[in-house]
Amino acid sequence: MAELTYRDAVAAGIAQEMERDERVVFLGEDVADAGGVFKATVGLLDKFGPKRVRDCPISEQAILGAAMGAAMTGLRPIAEIMFSDFLAVCWDIVANEIAKSRYMTNGQISLPLVIRTANGAGSRFGAQHSQAVENWAMMIPGIKVVAPAFPADVKGLLAAAVRFRLVDARHRPGPRHPRRELGMRGADRVVDEGAVAGARRPKDEALGFDAVGDVDQDRFHRILRSWRRAR
After folding, report:
1. Would you please indicate which residues are annotated as catalytic (active-site) residues?
2. CB < 8 Å & 24+ apart, contacts of 41-50
3. From CA 133, how far away is CA 200, in angstroms rounded?
4. For a designed S-S bond to 173, which of 6, 56, 62, 134 qualifies (C-beta 3.0 to 4.6 A apart)?
5. 116/223 same-domain check
6. Do 180 and 217 lie in a common domain?
């Protein structure tokens, strides 16, 4: 049975939606030639070409501004912000423009776009690259947030995000503990955001963090597996 890592699930999910819908485009910093800073988008440029997979300047405002404009004109962009911390640079576009345009135009403008970003500690990239900021987006009307824990949920929730209007703030898998799942390669998958693995939490478990805010990933994975079994 084929095995899929968390990182590979990102590329697989994006490729699945780009194959399904020619309106889906992907843009961000170093996502094309370099295959992403975490190598999570390797192969997409070769498969879909430079018109649909685009490297952008180091400007979060430019990336999200371009994505917003593309969505307004009928495309379904996936915009990558390298680290979720950098959303602070372009937060006005997210909170006041993308989230509000449909309401402010009385439904005349729809923005079916996805913002995909790496969120939280785990890889120890430093104070400005390791924050968990999903709560910033969770309190903004007009935005939905998904944070998949398993490779299957990465692929499925990304598909749901592209087909609807969600913002994806995901936790990075640590380099020492790549998360893997079996039987996912090649499968078209969509997961409703309310039906992901681990939706129920056992009463006798809690997450553990060390002094620098890094997750004990072995324990974290055991807990998530127990949630899954409890469903």
Report:
1. 129
2. 41/10, 41/11, 41/14, 41/80, 42/11, 43/11, 43/15, 44/11, 44/14, 44/15, 44/18, 47/15, 47/18, 48/15, 48/18
3. 23
4. 6
5. no
6. no
Number of structural domains the chain divides into: 2
Rounded distance between C-alpha atoms, residue 171 and residue 148, angstroms: 8
Distance of CA 218 to the CA centre of its chain: 22
Residues 46 and 102 both lie in one domain: yes
Report the alpha-carbon distance of residue 137 to residue 166 in Å, rounded: 10
DSSP codes, 125-148:
--TTS----HHHHHTSTT--EE--
* pTM as predicted: 0.73
Q: Where are the beta strands (DSSP E) in 19-128?
A: 24-28, 53-55, 76-83, 114-119
Examine the domain organization and report whether 185 and 204 are in the same domain.
no
Q: How far apart are alpha carbons 113 and 101 in whole angstroms?
A: 12
Q: Residue 16's closest CA among 121, 203, 159, 130?
A: 159
Q: pLDDT tens digit string along 16-46? A: 999 999 999 999 999 999 998 888 899 999 9
Clarify whether residues 145 and 45 are in a common domain.
yes
Residues 14 and 120 in one domain: yes
Same domain, 137 and 169: yes
